[in-house]
Amino acid sequence: MLDYIVVGMGLAGISFCEVLEREGKTFKVIADRSQQASQVAGGLYNPVILKRFTMAWKAKDQLEWGKPFYERLEEKLGVKLDHPLHVLRKFASIEEQNSWFEAADRPGLDHFLSPVVVPNQNPAIDAPFGFGEVKHTGRIDTGVLVKAYGAYLGDKGIIDRSTFEFSSLTHHEDHVEYLGIKAKQIVCACGYGLTDDPYFGYLPLNGTKGELLVISAPEFREGNVIKSSVFTIPMGGDKYLVGATYKWKDKTNEPTEESKNELLEKLVTFLKCDFDIVDHVAGIRPTVVDRRPLVGRHPEHHNFYVLNGFGSRGVLIAPYASGQLFDYIEKGVALDPEIDIQRFTKKYYGN
Ligand SMILES: Cc1cc2nc3c(=O)[nH]c(=O)nc-3n(C[C@H](O)[C@H](O)[C@H](O)COP(=O)(O)OP(=O)(O)OC[C@H]3O[C@@H](n4cnc5c(N)ncnc54)[C@H](O)[C@@H]3O)c2cc1C
């Protein structure tokens, strides 16, 4: 009898497996490749919402939790994941500069927002009003993480790359059983795949498609993340990520011409050097109606849990929410009501 079955191997599944390993639990992962948000994500960790100059939900705690988490993973997997980078928010006007100064004075934000205007020194960028600098930010290479973690679990023989068929799951008093595998608990970390899950499909997961371009721009020579109408994120060499789009109707993982054109139109408003597109990727962010994660126990099946709903902030939320779920299952620590799926129990019973 295993301790856990984990379904899904994006940021949610990986983070939960990490807690399980640390706590000496046995587990098996079942993960197909139907969803790819974690594989294609920009990977930015930035605790500040750059539209309104406010802190993102619990971002300071999540950052404190997340940084050592990715550090441990780097050591364990032998890959570079964390690339600390400053984010430069392009100002559109003097008014925006003033709002920034006000925000940089507020307790909490003062730790992250530098209280000066950074003048533009890059001839490849058009930014007459300069930038505001956000500190303690960076990029986790989530693509490398997903690949390396899959290989790690593969070497241990504890990952099955098939699609989890919910109809083959049976529930018993003190365990669940799936195609001959018995486990005390099962955690479903399926990202947008949750919408096909007959157990947790009642949860209001919208899904927001995002697309990113990878460009090669030898004359850009920019070491910071630039945030204007789109982000540009340095990937090393002359490669930059450009993104991302937000679309609510299309739920496929296919890159589209429409989003490519949208990204290019926005990019050329501030990038003034030549570039080539070298890649174009897409994925579905698991976004929730109330913008909070979906964590907790199934209303009827008490060995069955969900870990989902990280929206556009999976890098910071995943390690934090995984720790909470583990403490809830194993130590009986109550979940933060803001993330607990109990807030949607009425939906399960059709009210
Ligand atoms: C374009 C884009 C840019 C983004 N940029 C950022 C960023 O800069 N910073 C940030 O923090 N976040 C970003 N995000 C959001 C981030 O990617 C997500 O919050 C996070 O990856 C969600 O992780 P997850 O594990 O919940 O889901 P996923 O990564 O979608 O993983 C779900 C896993 O479950 C598997 N699965 C699903 N159903 C089944 C089934 N029935 N059987 C077996 N396996 C199944 C999938 O194949 C996959 O392995 C971005 C997302 C996109 C799309």
Automatic annotation (TrEMBL):
Organism placement in taxonomy: Bacteria, Pseudomonadati, Bacteroidota, Flavobacteriia, Flavobacteriales
Organism: Flagellimonas aequoris
Protein name in the entry: FAD-binding oxidoreductase
Segments forming domain FAD dependent oxidoreductase: 3-321
Pfam families in the record: DAO
Gene3D superfamilies noted in UniProt: D-Amino Acid Oxidase, subunit A, domain 2, FAD/NAD(P)-binding domain
A GO CC annotation given for this chain: cytoplasm
Superkingdom of this protein's organism: Bacteria
Classification via PANTHER family: SARCOSINE DEHYDROGENASE-RELATED
